[in-house]
Amino acid sequence: PRYTAVMEQIRVHSTVSAHLCRLVASRKSLSSETAFLCGLLHDIGMAATLLVLSDRPKDEPAISSFVLDEVLRQTHQEVSGMIAQLWKLPEDVRKVVANHHSFPAHEPPHPLSAVLAITEEMSLSVGKGVLMGAGRCDRVWPEALVRAREVLGLTESEESGLREEARLIAESVGQDMEDEKKASERKTVQEKKTASAGPRTAT
Fold this sequence. Notes:
By secondary structure, the chain is mainly alpha-helical. It has helices spanning 4-27, 32-41, 44-53, 65-86, 91-98, 111-125, 142-152, 156-197.
């Protein structure tokens, strides 16, 4: 299937981001469970866009990774926000997933948008980001990171400590997900073998 590798990146990245959002939010006395939900769903717009693109006729030329990277960079925040609205998720969640790489210029960032921006950058730094083409689709612009740190009052020493915890969390979550994937693959293989063998007849 098209985009399988990227969809797997999004799955791992979103799971790691959810745990990192919970970590940072808890340190800043914010709702850790809402932060977890935001981290889990923030790139749902990427997944939805890839599902739509995967329905293109098979004989059409493949979209280059550089073009796809730019399409996702420009659209996925807005699409994530639209999906959150369609699913009737809380307004805070909609605002956060729609604004986690850049923030509205006319108002302060939502605190959980700031959390998500920080954890996006952390996730990339520990090798759990979404990367393709020029690697721009999942990057947070430097000015947004500056504003996020200001909103959270995040000091350099705090961020350094969080980065070390983020590395350990990413390793643990990544290993758990890999184990689950392998178990699922073994189960699928076994089910196929059972189905191909057909029903046993009594002797």
